[in-house]
Amino acid sequence: MIGSRWQRGVFFAVPGLLLAGFGAVHPGNLDAATASWWVSLHVILLPVFPLLALAQWLMLASAPPWLRWPGRLAAFGFAAFYGGLDAVAGIAAGTVVRAQNGATPVVGAVFAIGDLLGYIGAACFLAASTAIVAATALRTRWRAAPGGVVLLLAGVSFLDSHIFWPRGVFTMIGVAAGMFLLSVAGERGLGALRFTSSREDHGEPAP
């Protein structure tokens, strides 16, 4: 168990911050000069993007079932489809360019299917984020607003920014900030609910 709500907030922010860091060193173009790093970076990223889906999955733990399971299905979809983008447009495309010492028509076809997989994955991320925001708002009302606005704006930006510098990096920072704020707000909401329930169990009026 993670101790304080602040520690939990940091825990949920870490995947987004990691991705922001990797985005800052992500090549802007795939060519013969960047192909080797392009491949290596996307191999490194293969286990990192699922951490973002795991954070979403865990943040939905206290959501009502009608939000929890669609949200978790969307988080799973993000991990699956965005991992496909990494493998196809990252590792496969980079390997082809490195082997051919430059781009070929094949690379364009590889990027086309990779972009489709990435868009589906990013849309799943936005759907799971929407479920997280809705679940937190049910518990905390207005306290969910700051984190909810930041996370949803970042989720929309993620649809086409990916993690590329500069917008993609700031998008991932937004994801980290939104998850941090929503986690802290959600923990406060759960604490208030436990306090109210305890008072009612002892016959005291709710505050």
What's the short version?
By secondary structure, this protein is an all-alpha fold.
Q: In angstroms, what is the radius of gyration?
A: 20 Å
Q: How many distinct helices? A: 7
Distance between the termini: 29 Å
Beta-strand percentage?
under 5%
Q: Average pLDDT value?
A: 89
Instruction: Describe the largest sheet.
Output: none
Strand-helix topology:
Layout: H1 5-24, H2 35-45, H3 49-59, H4 65-100, H5 105-140, H6 145-161, H7 167-201
Helix pairs in contact: 1-3, 1-7, 2-4, 3-4, 3-5, 4-5, 5-6, 5-7, 6-7
Describe the structure.
The protein is an all-alpha fold and 207 residues long. The protein is built from seven helices and no strands. It starts with a helix and ends in a 6-residue tail after the last helix. It has one domain (5-199). It is 80% helix and 0% strand.
Key features?
207 residues, mainly alpha, 7 helices, elongated
